[in-house]
Amino acid sequence: MDTNTADVSRSCPRPEGRPEGRPVPEAEPGLVERWRAEGGQLVELLTRVRERCGGVAAFRNGSARTVLVTDPEAVQHVLAQHADVYVKRSHRARLLVGDGVLAATGDAWKRQRRLLQSQFTGPGMRRYEHRITEAARTTAARWDEYARTGQTFDVGHEMRRFALDSIWRSLTGYPLDEATADVLTSVGAVMEALPTLPADAVGAQDTVAADLARIDALARHAIDAARSGTAGPDGPGLLHVLTGAGAERPEYTDQLVRDELVTLLAAGHETTATTLTWLHLLLDQNPDAREEALAAGGEGSAERRQALQALVHETLRLYPSAWILPRHAAEDDLVGGFTVEAGTDLLVCPYLTHRDPELWPDPERFDPRRFTDPDGRPARPGAYYPFGIGPRACLGLQFAIRESTVLLEHLLPVHTPVFSAVPTRTAYGITVRPEGPACATLKP
C-alpha cells in the first residue's frame, strides 16, 4: 500500500464490514468536460481513462462516479465470479424488447434463461442446423446472381438479410419472405435509434412508435400462428417452445412471448450481421487471411471450419458483439484489490480489453492465427469475451458462431467482394457497427 493510500485510510476510518482495499485510481478532474467539448465518442473517453489509470479506473461526470473495468482478472471477478453482486439494471433496449431475457432481472430472468438455454446448446442447436444452412444457400444463390449480372449491392444489407433469415426460420419454421423482411427492418431501425432517443420514456416511445407498431403487428401474427399449431415447412420453431410454455407457466402471456420473440430477433440478427459485415471489410484489407483460411483443409473439413471460425473470432476480438457491459454494484466489494462501494456504476469494456497490447501483441492488426496457433491468444480468463462471460453471457454465442461459419463456407470459396465504397466511420451504439453502406460487386 502506498503512503497516500495509507494516510487516507488513517484519516477516514473504513466503516465496519466494508472490504478494505485501495481507492480506485481516478482520472483527472475536467477530463469528461474536455472530451464532451471536443464532441468525442464514449469509446474515446474510456480509452483515455484506461491509458491514464489502468485496468480498473474511475472517472466523474459531474458528481456521478463510474468505474471502468478492462483488466482480465477484474472482468472475471465482476461478470463471472460475483455476478450476484454486480447486477444489470435497466437495459437500453427495453423500449424494444420489453421484459425479454435480455432486459429481465432477478428471478424472472433466471426462469426465462432456463427455458431458452436448452435451445442454444447441444441437441437444441442441431435442431436449427438445417435452417441455418438453407438461409446460407439462399444468400449464396443471391450472390451468384449478383456475380452474373455485375450488380452493385450493400454487403451490410446482405448480411442483415441472411441473419434475419436464419433466426426467422429458427423461430417460426418459415423462410424469410420479402414482406416479413421489410417489416423486420424496423427492428434494426429502433436498435440504431436507441442511443439518440429522448431521455423521457414517453418521448422515446413516440419517436419510434411507427416502427414498434409494425413489429408488434408481425409478432402478434406469428404468435397466433404458433398457438394455433401452424408450423412452417421446416416444422415447429423456437416460437412454438415459447407459446407452449404458456400452458404450464402463467407468466408466459402473449406480451412476454412477444418480448422474447423480439429479443431473439433483435439480438439474433444484429450482432451476427454486424460481425459478418466487419469481416468482409477486414478481408478486403487483408486478402492473405482469406487465402490462408481457404488453404486449410478441404471443403467441409474440420481444419477448414476451424480456420473460418478463427476469422470470425478475430473479427469479434476487434469488434465484439457487446462492446460495453454496464453493471451496478449491489454491495461493497474489492475488484483487483480496489474498493468498489455499493451503489457504484461500472462499465466493463470488451472492446478495450481486446485491444490491450499487454494481452494482444500488435492489437490493431487483423490476425486470425491468434485463434489457431497454440500460443496465439492470452490464456488469462477474462481476456476475450465478445459475448460476455458468466451467467449473463449471451445465450446465442454458439448460434452466432455456427451461422457465421456456415455462411463463410458457402461464400468465401466462390465470391470475393470488390468494394466501391466503404464506411469511413464507426458507430458505437448497442453494437459497434460500420456507419454507412459497404457497396461492392463480386469477383469470382
Task: Describe, in plain words, how this protein is organized in 3D.
The protein has 444 residues and is an alpha+beta fold. It has a single domain, classed as Cytochrome P450 (Cytochrome p450). Helices cover 51% and strands 12% of the residues. It contains 17 helices and 13 strands. It has helices spanning 3-11, 31-38, 42-53, 72-81, 94-97, 106-117, 123-149, 155-172, 178-193, 201-207, 209-227, 238-245, 254-285, 287-295, 302-318, 350-353, 397-411, and strands at residues 22-23, 56-61, 64-69, 86-87, 153-154, 325-329, 333-335, 338-340, 345-348, 416-421, 425-428, 432-435, 439-443. The strands form four sheets. Strands 2-3-9-6-4 form a five-stranded mixed sheet. A three-stranded mixed sheet has the order 1-8-7. Strand 7 (333-335) and strand 8 form a beta hairpin.
